[in-house]
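Contributing new records

If you add data, match the layout below exactly. Sequence lines come first and carry their own label; structure lines follow with theirs. Keep one chain per record. Anything else will be rejected by the validation script.
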Amino acid sequence: MENVWPKAIQAYKLIFGSEPDLSNFDNRLMLQKTIYMAKLLNVDFGDIGFTWYNRGPYSFEIAGIYSKGAHMPHGLKEKEIQAINSNRGKLLELLSTPSNAELYASVAFLLFEETLPENEVVRKMDLIKPWFTKKQVEDAIKKIGLKQIFNST
């Protein structure tokens, strides 16, 4: 599992320009959501899985790795680097704050992992994340919908 860590760190660094500081919850949330969004770009993180958790898509495997303080050399493939670089601006917008990262990653998870129709995504987000307005969720669906947010996946 720890062979995923180099790619996770490199993907984060390509998007944000620095390695993640995992000393607080918001930063760890940002790393989780960044890895999930990179998976949508077909970055291969092996058999790392994401499940629905309180703040959206969450990987217990990733949490286990960074809780051990793993730091290893980086290892994204050239194709994965290109996918992240060509979508960096969009990823920075979606992941600009912990709240944005939670919103967009949650909507993406519901659309692509749970394959819910858009109206069900709005309904489910209202039930489980009522702090996001209906308009915020609808706008996120428009940005995320059909993976059109990304140049290529």
